[in-house]
Amino acid sequence: MSRVADSTIQGFLYQFNITLQEILRASEDDEITVEGIIEDIDIERGNNTVAIQCKYHEGQEKFSLSKIYKPILQMMKTFAENPNANIEYILYMYFPNLVDSEMKITLDDLTQIIETKNKEYLIDYIAYLKKCNSKEILDIISKKRKSDDDKQKIKKYFYENNMDLKFDLQQFLTRFKIIVGEKYEKIKEINKKLLQEQGFSKEDVDDLFFPNAIQTIADLSINKIADKRKTNKRNIIKLLKEHKDTAFTRWTKEIISRKKILQIKRKQLNQNLNKNYRERCFILNPKWIENFDKEISNFIRNYKEKYCWKVKLHKPTTFCIMNVDKNYIAQLISELYEMNVKVENGYVGEKFYKEKFMANPQKKIKDNWLEFNIRLIDYSDNFIYAIKNMQIDDLFIIGKEETEDIGKLGKNIEMIEIENLKELEFLLNLRKEV
Questions:
Q1: Which of 158, 145, 411, 378 is nearest to 275 (CA)?
Q2: What are the extents of the domains in the chain?
Q3: Whole-angstrom Cα distance, residue 247 to residue 265?
Q4: Burial of residue 395 (number of CB atoms within 10 Å: 0-12, 13-18, 19+)
Q5: What is the pTM of this model?
Q6: Chain segment 205-236, per-residue pLDDT in tens
Q7: Domain 257-427 annotated CATH 1.10.3470
Q8: What contacts 24+ positions apart, CB below 8 Å, involve 252-257?
């Protein structure tokens, strides 16, 4: 992973942790919007709103005011557009050489920021903060997309004209403050203690509730509808108590070591995997899984030999593969046939029959014979119809979910982001080690 990618992920994790901290410290009536409409975190307390923007700069040795020009200008722009709103603006930031405290910022500091010659800041922010007497320039500023010529005209106008601000800078200063935060690792420990104060045991907080809390916030953050990104302390605690399995995603893998989270998840999955006569379905997204095409037939065979061979006790498992066509499925069926894996795909000739795909296999118990062990299908309307009518006990979504259609189709849903099928075999007890 590149340094830029690593710092970006850590920046998100820091923001998620600050969000969790604000939620756990909030009152019962406070409403928190994750990835808020105003800033990274919006907290509504009665008629007042606290808008928090988070910046984490662990890799930068020394702080300078110029490093926070952009977030402050963003907040100024929001204030200029809503000068009468009851909004408190907080920049929550971390730099290695700064001590945890509230940093005092002056009117001169804000003036210095506004007078920057940075072209990007001038076009994106300062042009909205200063008055403009030119209709041509005002029309250009109002464009959502600006050409290079447009940007040059804006730059030239404000460089040549010393225009007044549209808003009261002193008034903004009374509503704005900077908090120098703790280091990422310290914030994590603070949140774990806050969770313990909610009645969760220390051991469960480390392995279950803390990673799930971060995942819950991450899930909220990507919802496109603002109202669905809103939550409060009561709802978060309720969700954590309801989910007894550790989420296995890119975010939890950043919090817990990969080896440890694999071991934790393996132990949790065992509870249902040890039960016979379960209707199970795997939805696999090859896009996110290394060497998928080379390893999928061996994986299905290994799975069948452990979980789909008892004529009396085992039910066939359904495997659905995303982003492939029926020709891919046909080739895979041929490979599996050569491995003594009997597959039902619902087709007779060129036509798909839902009833055939969904039917239970014929059995001859005395001969230990089963018509088929596996159902195999590509992701399609045929699959969606079938799974909605199959009463799935355990639904495994492997890779990354790319559609909302499959999120609520099983009684027990496991969303697992793996790097390769060997990891999945370990989680399913098909191999002892990865």
A1: 411
A2: 3-122+168-238, 257-427
A3: 8
A4: buried
A5: 0.78
A6: 999 999 999 999 999 999 999 999 999 999 99
A7: no
A8: 252/211, 252/212, 252/214, 252/215, 253/417, 254/9, 254/10, 254/13, 255/13, 255/188, 255/210, 255/211, 255/214, 256/207, 256/211
